[in-house]
Amino acid sequence: MNWSVMIPLVFFLILIFVIGFWASKYVRTTDSSFLAEYFLGGRQLGGLILAMTMIATYGSASSFIGGPGVAYTEGLGWVLLAMSQVVTGYFVLMVLGKKFAIMSRRYHAVTLIDFLKGRYQSKWVVLVSAFSIILFLFSAMAAQWVGGARLIESLTGLSYISALFIFAVSVLVYVILGGFRAVALTDTVQGIVMLVGTLVLLIATIIAGGGIDSIMTDLQAENPNLITPFGAEGNLSASYVSSFWILVGVGVVGLPHVTVRAMSYKNSRAMHRALIIGTIVVGFIMLNMHLIGVFSRPILPGIEVGDKVMPLIALEVLPAWLAGVVLAAPMAAIMSTVDSLLLVVSSAVVKDVYLNYVEPKATHKKVKKLSFTITAVLGILVFLMALDPPDLLIWLNLFAFGGLEAAFIWPVVMGLYWKKGNKHGALASMLIGILSYILFHLYLPNLFGLHTVVMPIILSLAGYVIVSLITTKSGKESLVQS
Amino acid sequence: MSKDKEHFRIAHREAWIGVALAVFNFIWWFGFAYGLGGKSPSSYHYILGLPAWFFYSCVLGFIVMVVLVTVVVKLWFVEVPFEEEEGEES
Predict the structure, then answer these.
(1) Which pLDDT does position A32 carry in this prediction?
(2) Which B positions 71-90 lie with beta carbon below 8 A of chain A?
(3) B48 lies in a domain?
(4) A446 in any annotated domain
(5) Any idea which of A20-34, A165-179, B4-18 has the lowest mean pLDDT?
């Protein structure tokens, strides 16, 4: 075992625990608004923490470990694709914006589903959205745990099961004890680790490669396509790369674990600061991280498994202790995504299903106990799943994020800004979004050279508008009845 | 109620600004990447060691967006209270 790499990693984990315990103080001392504190940090986030928690949440394992690996294979074309994520830094907060902040307070919404419930007043909208969140995000979470455990396994030489155990315990302790506040604070630490880590590694890689000029010359000599926007084989078409603006760019507005953050901030000033900080940090991390992948190619040619590019290049160009610090960055990325997924799934079970339809009059004490228990049980379930991931889970994870975007983007956005939107439209939009995503994924992937996510998002918009217009009258009637 | 309307008017305007920024961001990104990058790699120009298409689209484009977002937020975004009159919840 490489101890000089391990010590910074262990230090990082201890820091995360300390934050978890500190935040648990808030959870223990609030009583009346326990749910708002546990699942939303009491709506008290400031600008920096808001920006960092949003970035850390969607900068997941796939982009952090997988991203540089693909950039290594595809060249600058993949960095171009990754830069479509800069838009998330400002778009999500601007579009949901102040209207979402005002409305979610008015509905006393603690989760995305609370918001939909307040807006559409429909049991079916709530149940369908809770079901899809639990199913899809649970699978996405399990897949991320597998990624986290594999990373620890490859860094430390521990067995997969012990690596998974370490990962699970670290995440569970601070999420269960500290709730959303702990998650947001650890996300901030993790975001800073990612920011500094990628910058240090990028600089070291450029130096090791003899400057950007000579790296570019080497790349062009190996394969000129590596420095074009079209990928190593020339098959990254402009329309395909552009459609990632929907999947990882503007479509992120529909992801429940991202949306919930847009109701967690304290005031307008926090939001304004987060817009600026968020844009800077997300662009910086994405650019650095993916350039590292491309620049590694001349230094360490012939890496077969993309996921190993980050760890190998760090160990190659940095002193061991610094490599340990830098490699805490992908760990941080995975943990910060997993923790928010866990909390969103847990809130869907406790708040959206149990409190709405099973026992609306549960006492505060019971709700508190239930929240801790459900979060813990979910964590243990994910752990068991990740030990030997079933095929169904892997399959669901493949379209978890795209499917959720197609399901939620229009009920949320149109629900905010279009008065005529109603529950029938929302329900149609969600069902069309999820089902068409699955069907396109299976039978017509990448139709017209666009990523699979594009068509379902268009169809679910059509479904929302058409069904809302047709049923406007009956929609009003049922609103009066309820 | 009129106060409410005013707040929503501000919120709607800011949402549209977000959409406009995203459209501009996309055009800049796409235009430089495929406008300059579509040529043969042997005829590329380089800026700071990077191919010109990449520098303009991804590096300069990112800096331009940061500046635009900062300016837009400082000049046109208005502070609005979120709590209702009752203001008990915190």
Answers:
(1) 58
(2) 73, 77-84, 89-90
(3) yes
(4) no
(5) A20-34
- Encode pLDDT of A99-140 as tens digits: 999 998 888 888 888 899 999 988 899 999 988 888 888 888
Q: Does A221 touch chain B (CB under 8 A)?
A: no
CA distance B40 to chain A (A): 8
Number of compact structural domains in chain A:
1
In a domain, A121, yes or no: yes
- Which pLDDT value is given to residue A481? 40
Residue B46 DSSP symbol: E
Per-residue pLDDT tens for A72-106? Answer: 989 999 999 989 889 988 999 999 989 999 998 88
Residue B43 belongs to a domain? yes
User: pLDDT tens for residues A338-370?
Assistant: 888 888 888 888 888 888 888 888 888 888 888
Which of A87, A98, A211 is the closest to B80 by Cβ? A98
Between positions 7 and 36 of B, the ones with CB within 8 A of A are: 7-8, 10-12, 14-15, 17-19, 21-22, 25-26, 29-30, 33-34
Number of structural domains found in chain B? 1
The verdict on residue B84 lying in a domain is no
pLDDT over threshold 80, residue A269: yes
| Gap between the Cα atoms of A204 and A199, Å rounded | 9
